[in-house]
Amino acid sequence: MYSWLIFIHAVSAMVSIGPFFVLIPMLRRLKTADGDLLHSYLDSFRFVVRLSKHAGHVLVASGLLLMWLGSWPWTTPWIFGTFVVLFASLLFMARAFSPTIRKLREPGHDRQALLRKLSRSLYLYLLVLFVMLWLMIMKPMIW
User: Membrane-spanning regions, if any (predicted)?
Assistant: First the structure.
């Protein structure tokens, strides 16, 4: 059972991080896309954000079960640090992608400024995800 939970936890981590890398080359194409092509790119962004969110639910649930079954205390530095970064990333994700994607769908907004914001959000979110991944894999004893 524990081995399967580790597997589920690892796969959900891959599913929550991996699709964001598809969006990197798409950012360049968004600069010139119009009409249906623009909307299909924005739909792809929205799909990746939703997929990551739902994979994150599985990731957190499996992580909590692993903590409980493995008798890991909340005060373990890498677990506590992961949860701090996780809650920060949840707040960030709620504000970073969906409002910007919504504005890009509306005419009359500065597309270049919104694309810079979307790009910055994407790279910053990837950095946050990598910090969480580092904490879970390396398990540093910070204190």
Answer: 6-27, 55-72, 78-101, 122-142
Cβ contacts of residue 143 below 8 Å, gap of 6+?
Answer: 77
3-state secondary structure at position 75 = coil
The domain ranges of the chain are 1-138
Would you put residue 110 in left (φ > 0), alpha (ψ -120 to 50) or beta? beta
Place of tokens 């896309």: 33
Q: pLDDT tens across 24-70, in order?
A: 999 999 988 988 999 999 999 999 989 998 999 999 999 999 999 99
CA dihedral 58, 64, 70, 73 (to 10 degrees): 150
Which residues have C-beta within 8 Å of that of residue 37, sequence separation ≥ 6?
none
* % the chain with pLDDT above 90: 69
Q: Is the sign of the CA dihedral 121, 122, 123, 124 positive or negative? A: positive
